[in-house]
Structure formats: C-alpha cells, structure tokens
Amino acid sequence: MAKSTSQFVKLGLFVIFGSLLILVTAYMIGNEQNVFRPTFQISAVFNNVNGLQKGNNVRYSGIQVGTVRDIVMEQDTSIRVYMQIQEGMMTHIKDNAVAVIGSDGLVGSMLVNILPGPGIGAPVRDGGEIASYSSISTQDMLSTLNVTNKNVSLLSADLLEVTHALRSGSGVLAQLLYDSTMAKDLRQGFHNLNVSTARTEEAISRLNKMIGEWRLEQSTLRLLTDDPEFTGQIQRVAANLDSSGQEIRELTGRINDLIGGVQQGEGTLGMLMTDSSMAAEIRHGLRHLDSGLVKFDENMEALKHNWLTRGYFKKMEKQQEKENKKH
Length: 327
What we know:
Blueprint: H1 2-32, E1 39-46, E2 57-60, E3 63-75, E4 78-86, E5 98-103, E6 110-115, E7 131-133, H2 138-168, H3 172-178, H4 180-212, H5 220-226, H6 228-263, H7 267-274, H8 276-305, H9 310-326
Parallel strand pairs: 2-6, 5-7
Antiparallel strand pairs: 1-4, 2-3, 3-4, 5-6
C-alpha cells in the first residue's frame, strides 16, 4: 500500500513538472511569435511573395521585430502581406520604410525585411501601409543565368570559328598576321604617313615664320599712317564724296518738291496731269491739227497736178534724184 502511494506521488510530481515545462515552452514560443506582447499591424503589397508563409519572421534592419500574420491575394498581380510588429518598434519604423521579401540564408525559410527609407519620415501608424520592393526570385535568376549560358556558348562558338580562320590563314586579319609582304607594305605606309606629317608640320612652321617676318613698313597700313600725300588724297576723295552726297541730297529734294507740285496741280505739267478740262481742250486741238494736216496734204497734192505749179514740182523732183545719185 505504501509502495503504491509513493508511486502515485512520483507520478503526480512528474505530471506537474511536465505540465509546467509545457507551459513554459508554450509561453516562450508564444512570446517569440508575439502572442503575449502588445503589437501593432502594418501591411505591404507585393507582386510576388516568393513562397512567404504565415508565421514567417519580420525583421527591421536585421533585428527580429515581428511575424507575418496573414497573406491576402487582392488582385492577380498584387498580394497584401499583413505583419504583426512589436509595439516598441513603432517609434523606430517610419512611414517611408520599404519592405523586401528575402530568405534566411541560402536555404532558410522566407522572411520580410523592413529597411529604413531615405530622408526623414513620420512614425508608422497601426494599420498603415509601407512601400515594398519585389526582389528577383531564384527562378528568375536561374532563367537569366540560362540565357547568359546560351549567349556564352554562342560567343564561344564564334570565337572558335574566328580562331580557326586565323590559324587557316583566311581573312584580312589572318593575312596581316601571316603575310610578311602585307606587313611590310603596312609598315611602309605608316612610315610615309609619318614623313608626310613631319613635312606638313615643317611647312606650317615656315608659314608662321613668314607671317611673323612681314614688315609693317611695306604694307598699306604704313602708307595710311606715315605718307602725308597718300593721306591727303584719301581726305580729298572723302571730301568729294561728301560734297557729291550733299548735291545728290539737294537734287533729290528738288525732284521730290517738283513731283509734289505736279501731284498738287502746280505748273503746266501739273495742270496737264490733273486738269481734265485742259486735257480735253488739248485733245480737241490735236484733232483739229490732225484734220488741218490732212487738208494741207490734199492741197499740196492738188498743186502738184495744177498746170501752173506742175513744172516747179518736176524740177524739184529731178534735183532730188541728182542729189540721191551723188550720195
């Protein structure tokens, strides 16, 4: 009977100790998952969470500050991640912080890293949203690496082909490498180019020296500054040009005055141009003059045929013919 009671006591103590151990372990795990600590919630929207799950860690500048509470698919290209953060970090995390999804080591579980943003920002609020940055996933990196490998393979094949062509002596580059005649011609060409450059530099130097040795005494500037006779001629030409310009201006003024007077009807020419009655009288007089000339021609023709004056006109015609023959 005593033995059974001792066993029961030991069993009870073991159960109590085990229960306390389980409670302490649960408390520690819950404390690690922010179950028994005051927290606040923030969120961020990602295009790809790269395998992130609920309960994964959230770090701020590498420090464990919370866990992922929930992951909600909002649209086909946007996923909202809710994070449970320790309340003490509210004053440290600013609203311009950036959330990035990464991994804990090379093969570790996924986590959310919160990085401080540029500049000075206000403390984040409970339920607020911070910016996000979707890092390149491992699949994308492997895909890019695969494309790079293909390009490297193609480049290696082209390089092998070029090397084979060089070794076989085909192509201009191979001829430059193996053809001694072409190499000699190329060296001779470079030598001629150097000689031409040296001669050009020498010619330019001589030209500069010749320009520098030009004498001012033999130039036109010397005549303008030191020859009084040449200077006097220049001054007389300038004076003549000035007087001619003055006369031209006076003549132009007179012509303008004359034209203005004609336009205003002054003088005979102005009356002829502006007085319509005088113009009509002149036209009437010209008509009478024209008719008078016609009658005068008729009278002269009649005199030629008159027996009294016919001999005179015949004599005049013969004299005109003689003069024409002499000429």
